[in-house]
Amino acid sequence: MAQLSSNLLYIAFVLYLVATFFFAGSIKDKRAQAEKGQNRWAFIAIWVTLAGFISQLGYFIARWAASGHAPVSNLFEFTTFFGMMLVGAFIIIYFIYKTPVLGVFTLPVAVLVIAYASMFPREISPLIPALQSDWLHIHVTTAAAGEAILAISFAAGLIYLLKSVDQSRSSKSTFWLEATMFALVTTLGFVLVATIFSMMDYKADFTYIDKNETEAKITYSIPALIGPHEGKLLTQDRIEPLVKVPAIINAKKLNTVIWSFFGGIVLYGIIRLILRKRISAKLQPLVKNVNLDLVDEIGYRSVLIGFPIFTLGALIFAMIWAQMAWTRFWGWDPKEVWALITWLFYAAFLHLRMSRGWHGEKSAWLAMIGFVIIMFNLIAVNLVIAGLHSYA
Amino acid sequence: MADVKCECGHVNPHGTILCEACGRILDESQSGTKLVDMRYEGSARRSQVYNKTIIDKIWNFFSSVKVGVWLIVITLVASAVGTILPQEFYIPPTVTADQYYQEEYGWFGKLYYHLGFHNLYSSWWYLILIASIGMSILIASIDRFFPLYRSLKKQTVSRHEGFLKRQRIFGITKPDHSEIELEQIAKHLSEHRYKVRLENGNILAEKGRFSRWGPYVNHIGLIVFLIGAMLRFVPGMYVDELLWIREGETKEIPGTKGQYYLSSEKFILEVYEQDKEHENFSAAIEKNGMIAKNYQSNVTLYKRDGKAIPGEEPELTKIKDHKIKVNQPLKYDHYAAYQVDYKLDELNKMKFHLTNKESGETFGLITVDLYDPKPEYDLEKGYSVELMSYFPDFEFDENGEPSTKSKIPNNPAFIFKMFTPDTPKGEVSFVAIKQTLEPLGENDYKLAFAGIETKNVSALTIRKDLTLWILFAGGIIFMVGVIQGAYWNHRRIWIQKKDGEIWMAAHTNKNWHGLKRDINRIIKNTSLIEPADQLQEGKSSKKGKINSGSTKQ
Ligand code: HEM
Hints:
The complex is a heterodimer of chains A (392) and B (553).
Chain A: H1 2-28, H2 30-34, H3 40-67, H4 75-97, H5 100-117, H6 134-164, H7 172-199, E1 204-209, E2 215-220, E3 226-227, E4 232-233, E5 243-244, H8 251-275, H9 279-283, H10 292-325, H11 334-353, H12 361-383
Parallel strand pairs in A: 3-5
Antiparallel strand pairs in A: 1-2, 1-4
Chain B: E1 4-5, E2 11-12, H1 46-49, H2 54-63, H3 65-81, H4 97-114, H5 124-153, H6 161-165, E3 169-173, H7 178-191, E4 195-199, E5 202-207, H8 214-231, E6 238-246, E7 250-252, E8 260-271, H9 282-288, E9 292-305, E10 315-325, E11 330-332, E12 335-356, E13 362-369, E14 376-378, E15 384-391, E16 394-396, E17 402-404, E18 413-419, E19 427-432, E20 435-437, E21 445-465, H10 468-487, E22 491-498, E23 501-508, H11 512-522, E24 532-533, H12 534-540
Antiparallel strand pairs in B: 1-2, 3-23, 3-24, 4-5, 5-22, 6-21, 7-8, 8-9, 9-10, 11-12, 12-13, 12-21, 14-15, 15-18, 16-17, 18-19, 19-20, 22-23
Helix pairs in contact in B: 2-5, 3-5, 5-8, 8-10
């Protein structure tokens, strides 16, 4: 069952990639573009997407059967689920608006999210007492669904900006848009670095002195550029760290961040060398036929659809669970606070949309910021600021 | 303030932009624009009309959406800052906040502490921010509700030309058989669940008006929630106590005014074990070592009969047995007891044999209950032990005198006096863990250590929260409101005959795509042409922005 489950996830992953190319093909297909609605490419693309989604659903169910609980209880499972919901949200929006170009941008993000998720420990783990609650699973799945629908507005915003930002000269807009591209490439960089070293089976053990001044042991699975506090390398033939950091900094995480950044820069450099212009400039022709007003509306609607679901899942269900598991419905732990921040942000977004001048480009920028907040809560809060929710 | 009379004869309140009856533009400054601003139907709001007294000024301040958004954004940023370092209630209780932030995080920690961010969420300024948001929601909603209510109630079918022309969706058809077609269109509209009103051959079709109340409903939900959160501070609404209870112990439940008692039978800790769990879990268990499976206290709840009399044993009636686990609290009469912590194998009893040092012969076993030691243990036949002093948590104080750190028997020590037929005056012995002293000279007898008994202790949080239902109601009202406002929208289609032409205009508060799709379905098989999206036309002529582009409510 566990094996079947991970195979299904691989299949889904590949299908999403294939679907992306078909969606890209469908907007290149001039002939079909003229007649309204779907063309042949788009038709295939959406079916491949659906097949991928069903396969991932299979992964979810099989893993559920194998572990006896809904697989949303650690960072790998939760992030993968978020990727699945992203595809699900895309499918729904696609059937409302029939815009293949949305697939060209949403599916790669989903693929990236799933690839990223797979870098975390993947073994099936039994539930600790606090997590043994149906409400937890209801809370996590609904919250992820809400976040995924909200994230569609990111894809829409990206499309909007790719078309509307003038690439013929450098500006703040081109800079930030390119920064977004760089962030996506860096995520890919992380995935590549982690995959390469895990294929090489790289392991380096260290002893070091931790924050409480006791000796501890740690295993790096990528080469240590940043070593732990007073770290001593135990494994032979491994690279000695270039610098060692004080105990209050988590050296292993910092090392991973630096490697990802490094991987991102190299990858981005290569891409730029090949393209000879900004990634966003290169992508611009892909979106030249999109109707800006429609894309703007898609972004706004996905926020409208996602906001109530997010509220229900990330705040109301979360409070019900917290009341049972932690004796109080709200405890100001970082994960909770970031859910509140996300909620406040999208509330502000909805209110700004009511005034003139916040449609179109400004809205699109807001959608980007919203996605950054969501990803921050999804990943960074778990890794950087560990709270009660400290998965993984 | 003078009312404004429209050409159609309707009298509008001062400040109205679009005539409530016919939709003609009353506000001169708007008459040059290409599209009308349909927010709040162009009605007069208090905040735009009055600006004299201080109350008006406060009212206007809080009723502004711009101010509301600023308040939300400031709260958002402040909340984020509060997560940079742990809040005070998450730091270890053994150190003071003052030291902790400085030692752990250096100058930044010190600054963070001095700026009060270590206790951000209960700081006065954070609470004021939240209160201002509440205020803003309330005032903004009242400010808009009444005028909006008036104009939505009072919609007329026939509208002024200028009103129709300046709708975002607008088109003119020149048909031949307009009579027949209008009826057919009215039928189509009804089929698409529009409420159709016909008047002098003009049509107003409307759908989803109730969604306009969505924001007001959700704002009421928020207000109810905030009121609920405030009620927490009313005495009697909220109880938060901690109860440490040992196996076999019966204790009054704190926070219940002596009404309820709890006895603990057993505390159970289970971990996942490699060979007992499914093989799918092996990898995780091997990697992570011990993974907790269950924390459980088996308890019995009692209610006291009659009044509490100090010094007297209470009379208890059993109410129920319960196995308290994480996520499964014991609930009764608005109180709930949650499993939150535990301590395993706490020392509970110590046993000693009274022994003759030389022969090794023993003369009976004494068992000292470390929570309730007896002054004397009679071993019959002339043998007995007197407990002269007891130090549950033994240490030598500054003067070198034996003393105790706490009442918890972490390191118990005793001074015993042993009586035997040989030593009727008694011998004094100081007994602590792994050591025996004989302060008053060599003894013939000793108390030989004969074992301990331990017990597990459970920590239970005792909670009563009468505000939960209010909060829950607020949550439900909020959800109803957002769903109402987000998943439905208010669509209107006006169709009028003017000089043999058919004019068609349409408005929605959101989701124009859906409105256009509706229109396309409705005019199918009729000779009406599809009305244009006037905003789109503006756009196609390159970057040209139409200033009242937003026609959202
Ligand atoms: C965190 C708090 C708040 C939440 C979650 C919230 C939620 C909402 C939502 C979901 C809408 C509907 C938006 C749409 O349909 O596009 C709305 C509308 C509105 N909100 Fe809020 N709101 C909040 C605070 C405020 C504040 C502080 C103000 C004060 C100015 C305010 C004033 C309004 C107004 C005037 C509307 C439009 C009403 C209408 O369309 O008739 N809201 N709010």
